[in-house]
Amino acid sequence: MPTTVNPATEAEIAHYETASDADLDAALDRAADAFEAHRRSAFGQRAEAMRRLADLLEDGADALGRLMTTEMGKPLDQAVAEAKKCAWVCRYYAEHAERFLADEVRETEASRSFVAYEPLGPVLAIMPWNFPFWQAFRFAAPTVMAGGVGILKHAEAVLGCGDRMAELFAEAGFAEGVFQHLVIDHDQAADAIADDRIRAVTLTGSETAGRAVGKAAGEALKPSVLELGGSDAFVVLADADLDAAVETGVTARVQNNGQSCIAAKRFILEKPIAEAYTRRFVERMEALTVGDPMCDVDLGPLVNGKAREGIQEQVERAAEAGADILTGGAIPDGTGFYYPPTVLGNVTEGSPAFDEEIFGPVASLVTAEDADDAVRLANATPFGLGGSVWTRDAAKGERLAREIRSGAVFVNEMTKSHPNLPFGGIGVSGYGRELARQGIHAFVNAKTIWVD
Predict the structure, then answer these.
(1) pLDDT tens-digit series, residues 188-245
(2) What are the backbone angles phi and psi of residue 363, rounded to the nearest 5°?
(3) In this structure, are residues 12 and 160 in contact, taking their beta carbons and an 8 Å threshold?
(4) CA atoms of 330 and 136, how far apart (whole Å)
(5) Are 3-229+426-451 and 232-382+386-411 equal in CATH topology?
(6) Quick one: three-class SS letters along 144-175?
(7) What is the pLDDT of residue 59?
(8) What are phi and psi of 416, to 5 degrees?
(9) CA–CA separation, 99 vs 78, rounded Å?
(10) 290 pLDDT band (50/70/90 cuts)?
């Protein structure tokens, strides 16, 4: 029986019954029936309900934030901001969906030829716990505005968030079956992917989960979007504004308690500033406050004990491989799954701190000989989700950003997701894109229509 646990107190929150196979079958029927009606609704009707949903998210942001913080431990102010960001993406697609999906006339020898964009059908979304609302709304807002419907399989840590999202869609006026949350296990998820009533799949999660879901979707000949994490490079060149690079670098590493796919993880420092940056970065990390996420702190607990043990094991292996633990690096005593802000120096290629994604507040500092070497090191990874380059020369920053193999690179800014920019990775960070025009096109049929 899945059970949610408060990671700050280790107290159980609620128990959930796993859906039966009959429950799953009924949910798939509801989704299929809802799709037939919803896909024929007008964009204006969908947009009106989506704006009501945005209002509900915004007006209830404090309560939704407390729910997120209770279930997965992020600082409350960040959780409230997440709810408001979901409202933003709802309004974005309410405003732009009709234009993004408008027929596109093409010049041919036909009397009339055009491309029509039509929703594929019900989408199964398998989502993680780290951004429990944002990850789901990133797929749900464009899918529903395109005329599709969604079934959410949420992570066991945040089942209360999944239930609340389904309630919000209903409160906004969307019909039954347009958005559902189901508590199902991995075998049932595989059955759903294979079922003809599911027409597409999206997953945010681990590389292992991505391979399994991608394989299942491929065998069923269904499109999928996979976002599988990253080991983002935070490149600091010798001419960078160190004050900004240090302050933003700390935020980029510890946001969401360090549990973010696009968090800065490998800090690649050009040699002339490596020592100064390291000293200042360690000082700022040591000044961070760790504690009850309902209070005014910089970091709360990790999501669970297993996650914390895994991070500790990675840090210990990195030290054995030659990395220096400059601060942190040990599990503290007491209740709650807390882990200190940790900095690893003298990290080199081949170290677990370089080659693996560390999903917690652990920064790996790497020294590069020059800017070209920094790009080489940034690309020396199978991941490719995001990254950033810090330099006072914006033209040079843009040139280097083009050379870094990744789904996104930011110059003089931390990596972030934005409704008007496509989001996704390459390599083992996955494939496909969410958000922007690309996100709403992920699960529609680009149908050619020729009229003579």
Answers:
(1) 999 999 999 999 999 999 999 999 999 999 999 999 999 999 999 999 999 999 999 9
(2) -105, 135
(3) no
(4) 33
(5) no
(6) HHCCCCEEEECCHHHHHHHHHHHHHHHHCCCC
(7) 98
(8) -150, 165
(9) 32
(10) very high
β-bridge pairing 444-451 and 123-126: unpaired
Residue 368's SS3 state is strand
Task: For residue 333, give the 3-state DSSP assignment.
Answer: coil
- Taking residue 402's Cβ as centre, other Cβ atoms within 10 Å add up to 9
Q: Tokens for 33? A: 């029936």
pTM for the predicted model, two decimal places: 0.97
Residue 449 CA to its chain's centroid (Å): 36
Residue type, 17: E
What's domain 232-382+386-411's superfamily in CATH?
Aldehyde Dehydrogenase; Chain A, domain 2 (3.40.309.10)
Amino acid, res. 191? D
AA letter at 64: L
As assigned by CATH, the class of the 3-229+426-451 domain is alpha beta
Mean pLDDT of the 368-380 span: 98
Residue entry with tokens 């920064």: 363
Helix (H) or strand (E) holding 320: helix 305-320
Alpha carbon of residue 279 to chain centroid: 31
- Give the C-alpha separation, 134 to 419, whole Å: 11
- How far is it, in rounded angstroms, from Cα 160 to Cα 155? 10
Beta-bridge partner residues of 388: 234, 410
Of 390, 354, 401, the C-alpha closest to 273 is 390
Rounded Cα gap, residues 440 and 155, in angstroms: 24
Residue found by looking up tokens 């989700």 in the block = 385
21: helix, strand or coil: helix
3-state secondary structure of 135: helix
State both tokens at 274. 């490596």
Encode pLDDT of 92-142 as tens digits.
Answer: 999 999 999 999 999 999 999 999 999 999 999 999 999 999 999 999 999
Q: Within 13 Å, how many C-alpha atoms sit on residue 179's CB side? A: 28
Q: Characterize the bridge pairing of strands 232-236 and 387-390.
A: parallel
Active site residues: 227, 261
pLDDT at residue 62, rounded to an integer: 98
Distance CA 50, CA 30 (A): 20
List the structure tokens of 184. Answer: 């199902």
CB atoms within 10 A of CB 190: 17
Average pLDDT over residues 328-341: 98
Q: Domains of the chain: which residue ranges? A: 3-229+426-451, 232-382+386-411
In this structure, what token pair is assigned to residue 108? Answer: 């041919």
Tens of pLDDT, residues 192-207: 999 999 999 999 999 9
Q: Is residue 154 a contact partner of residue 19, using CB atoms and an 8 Å limit?
A: no
